[in-house]
UniProtKB/TrEMBL annotation:
Domain EVE: 2-129
Membrane-spanning parts: none
Name of protein: Ubiquinol-cytochrome c reductase
Amino acid sequence: MAYWLLKSEPGSWSWADQLAAHETRWDGVRNAQALSNMRKMAPGDRAFFYHSGKERAIVGLVAISRSFYPDPEDAKSGLVDVTSVQSMPQPVSLSAIKVDPAFESLALVRQPRLSVMPVPDDLAQKLLKIAGL
């Protein structure tokens, strides 16, 4: 099982929206590197749900329930389906991540505009621990 991080602007798609929908497709990704990351996702992988914008925090965990497939509404994009797993007991803020030297190689720190990124297993376990899981 691999770990990923998916960014969403709460005004467009929030964690509350994800919980209400339970399973949905992850769409709207246009960046080539982010799409390449999505192509590597497999059912059963986990993804941290990150609120961008003002909040800037990991607020939930989703499971990849369907691997990459073409977006029928946008030939330049693609989709994966995600299913809600659980809310983070303690959201993990970007500021908390940035002050910990262990995360200096994390794409969230190095490439702040990238919307879909891998999270190495050791850092995923550390994030889960910080979140209280």
